[in-house]
Amino acid sequence: MRRWALVGLLLCTLNVLADELDDAMSGFEETESLHLGERGFDDLKSPLPPKTLSTPVINGSWYRFSGYGALQFSYNTMQSSESTVAPGDKAMDFSGLSSLKGKAGLSLDMKHGDNWRSKIEAVVWYDSAWAIKDKANYTQDVLDRYEYFFDIKAAYIQGALTKNLDIKVGRQRVIWGKSDSIRITDIINPLDNRSPGMVDIEDQRLSELMTRLDYYFGDWGLSGMIIHEPRMEIEPAFGSDYRPSDIFGQPIPYAKFPKRVNPNWSVENMQYAVSLDGHFTGWDISYYLAQVFDNRFSVEVSDASTVRQVSLINMIGAASNLALGNWLIKGELAVIMDINYRSTAEKNRLDTLIGVDYMGIKDMVISFEFANRHIFSYEDKMLTMSLEQASAQNSFPDFVREDSMQIALRTSYSFDHDNANINYLLSLAFGNGEGSQFDGGFQRVWIDYKYTDAISLNAGLVHYIGGSSLVPFYRALEDNGRIFSEIKYSF
Questions:
Q1: Class of the CATH-defined domain 53-490
Q2: pTM for this structure?
Q3: C-alpha span between 210 and 173 (Å, rounded)
Q4: Assign residue 218 a region: left if phi > 0, alpha if psi is -120 to 50, beta otherwise?
Q5: What is the pLDDT of residues 39-52, one digit of tens each?
């Protein structure tokens, strides 16, 4: 019932606004449109510009090709030569060379008259490290997840239905919230989480097929989305160095770890979202409403098999930025309902974030963010239930605290006429409850260097910090420290 109420609210809201449009088929200015929900604070001093649409072109052509080729390298400095596995399973070597990846991306932007444009963007990569280290030494699940990948990052058509109403149909990404490092309201697109901590959230988002309407009035923008594609996050392969078989205690046999059943494409599995965004002088605010799939899984046991399944959650939230001199203050809040915890009944959660960016030092930005996720009607077994206890009940532990907290400290310093940037990110997780209250985290330092307009370089290292055994995820990653580099040619 709640699902159809949300659908009705989305359709009714957009229909009412469409009925109020003035000069529905009038002109269309020749400047770039600003989609408020996609970045949220692009210009603190300017009012919302006129809503328009255009695509950059080359030499007056109606299309533009661009792309890149890259070589990426990473080396694990801490792993032992054999992973810990259950008796009878294949031990794998994740030490030393972790990745030697050739990657390419190609984008085609097209302009169709003054008011319409389309885009197709694809990425493909192949990691030769597995062949170098002999693919026979690794499970098929690891190879399927890490050896090669192809993805349509964007495939959409976008245009103006009226003076104030745009439509965008196809595979696309939608960015909610204000944080750069912690996800609170940014729940629309799933993430590529195969190698957590190696890249920023903006590089992890996976596009989904959706239909989006954007209506602009004054300083406000209203967006409504129907997400047709029930795409889930790409998770680490079980048995890999990012999800070792002993992550939950005693090693689980590869064959015993439940497979995830992804939702089918259907009307019942469509997802819905609405955002209202306002930009004003010195501040902005956004309101969100969504029904999307949660990546938290439940375990379903039958006579034939045991599988992991996902379910829909409902979210209502808000986010805001406020500029005060050299400071940018940001906040987010989300009430997430109907979360399917495995050890107990469905529960609701309140997620909050407060953060600041400081830009008072020349060529430097310092950012600090603090988030808390509070579970209502919490039960102690949601943290303390062991894998053995859960297995006896045909279930799986939750590994969650009543209040799970996270901090993120990020600094960036640019030099050499902004051609080079040194970056540092520290993310730590902790909370209340039994045992150690520190759950772990990671830190990453890297440098980006623009050698020429076409050639860029990237190099750095990441270090994972182990923590409590009650929330075992970071502890399982603590031997995953690695160095990495990339050389990229863009055209």
A1: mainly beta
A2: 0.86
A3: 9
A4: left
A5: 333 344 333 444 44
